[in-house]
Design a protein that fits this description.
The chain has three domains: 3-98 and 234-263, Response regulator (Rossmann fold, 3-Layer(aba) Sandwich), CATH 3.40.50.2300; 100-232, Rossmann fold, CATH 3.40.50; 280-383, Arc Repressor Mutant, subunit A (Orthogonal Bundle), CATH 1.10.10.60. Helices cover 50% and strands 14% of the residues. Strand 9 (208-213), helix 9 (217-222) and strand 10 form a beta-alpha-beta unit. With 386 residues, it is of the alpha/beta class. Strands 2-1-3-4-5-11 form a six-stranded parallel beta sheet, covered by helices on one side. A six-stranded mixed beta sheet has the order 7-6-8-9-10-12, with helices on both faces. The chain is built from 17 helices and twelve strands. This is DNA-binding transcriptional regulator. Keywords: DNA-binding, Transcription, Transcription regulation.
Length: 386
């Protein structure tokens, strides 16, 4: 029965999801005993105090957020440790890290598919998960001939409320070409952007479409409008980290490896629920499609929203979006279906009904056509270890 110290930010959704995965492994192969140690211990008693407690308690391992400059003390203590790379990756011990560049690429592709030609990134250049997300975002856009506008700050991520006041951030947001797709390094910074935009009267998503990372539902829903975000498979990361910890306790720490948390998909909310176009008829059509995608929407209904013939609308729609209307509806429906598949416990039949579709077999067939596997196989793939 392993005794594990968890030194994590228990208020963050990312840490909570890691813990769900760790707990799932514990229930399957344990049970383990956990000491949930608040992060203020790291600040008040330092690494010496944490190690002293760990040795007195008889801890078998530590999973948590640690400072890079204190790692030698942990290694010398001989306790198996897995660190969350909340600043920079560690070289001496295994990390719970992320496919950060992959998340940035996903954000870039998302905005490209929505027709944006202007792009921005908001984050920290001195933190690995922000820096590499920016690198992936920019690299993908450079392939398409686009540049990225940057605003990088070094203010505290939690204690300062500077973004509520007129500031250099406000001036930067006003100076950006519009419409623009803006990716923030995480949901906290995404909400900073939506607050700053609201303060200076910049419309979201019409002028600035904002995308975060982590899919922290509390923060995303607090944002006005609700914040779109890239969901991460952190629960699987927690499960995999617990498995590695088990191996290190049983077999020694020499054969360690990093745990890489992968991005899953973009969860679209109102902050990006728009298509970037100056064509009023296409904009009206797209707005109608997005507002009614949870109904059994047909092309004829879209055509009735604008004073154009079906042929004329179809031609302009294809020229601007790159898709026929039916295909755009299909893609968006699959995106919404996938979101419900991962966010709820509803069956395929129940999700189909929830989206106004009467033929669940047909949507399952369409899903397999788009994703290459059945809905149940997709759910199992991304929910493994949860």
């Amino acid at each position: 029965m392993h005794k594990i110290i968890l030194l994590l930010d228990f208020a963050e959704a990312y840490s909570k999801n890691l813990m769900r995965g760790i707990n799932a492994y514990s229930k399957e192969f344990g049970p383990w005993i956990f000491c949930r140690m608040p992060l203020f211990h790291r600040e008040t008693v330092g690494m010496e105090g944490i190690l002293k407690w760990a040795l007195e308690w008889g801890a078998d391992g530590i999973i948590g957020q640690l400072y890079n400059n204190e790692i030698e003390k942990i290694v010398q203590a001989g306790i198996p440790v897995i660190a969350q790379d909340f600043k920079e990756r560690f070289t001496e011990i295994p990390n719970i890290t992320g496919a950060y560049r992959e998340a940035g690429q996903m954000g870039a592709e998302y905005f490209l598919k929505k027709g944006f030609n202007n792009f921005a990134f908001y984050g920290f250049n001195n933190i690995v998960w922000s820096r590499e997300r920016a690198e992936g975002f920019e690299a993908q856009l450079r392939l398409k001939g686009h540049k990225v506008h940057y605003f990088e700050h070094k203010k505290s991520r939690s204690t300062e409320l500077w973004f509520y006041k007129p500031s250099s951030l406000s001036r930067w947001l006003k100076s950006l070409p519009k419409p623009i797709g803006l990716m923030s390094c995480d949901d906290n910074q995404g909400q900073h952007i939506t607050e700053a935009c609201r303060h200076v009267g910049i419309r979201i998503p019409e002028e600035v479409a904002v995308l975060g990372v982590d899919n922290d539902e509390m923060i995303c829903d607090l944002s006005d409008p609700p914040l779109s975000s890239i969901a991460l498979d952190a629960e699987k990361g927690g499960y995999d980290a617990a498995r590695l910890m088990d191996q290190m306790i049983r077999n020694g720490t020499s054969g360690y490896y990093d745990i890489v948390v992968k991005p899953m998909q973009v969860i679209t909310r109102q902050s990006t629920d728009i298509y970037a176009t100056n064509d009023d008829h296409i904009a009206s059509s797209l707005k109608y499609i997005h507002q009614n995608i949870d109904k059994n929407l047909h092309v004829e209904e879209v055509v009735r929203q604008v004073p154009l013939s079906r042929r004329a609308l179809e031609k302009r729609f294809l020229e601007i979006t790159g898709y026929p209307i039916y295909k755009y509806i299909f893609n968006l429906r699959i995106e919404k279906f996938t979101q419900k598949l991962l966010d709820t416990d509803m069956s395929v039949f129940e999700i189909a009904l929830d989206m106004g579709l009467t033929d669940s077999k047909n949507i399952a067939r369409q899903f397999r056509q788009a994703k290459g596997c059945t809905p149940s196989a997709y759910r199992n793939k991304y929910m493994a270890g949860k």
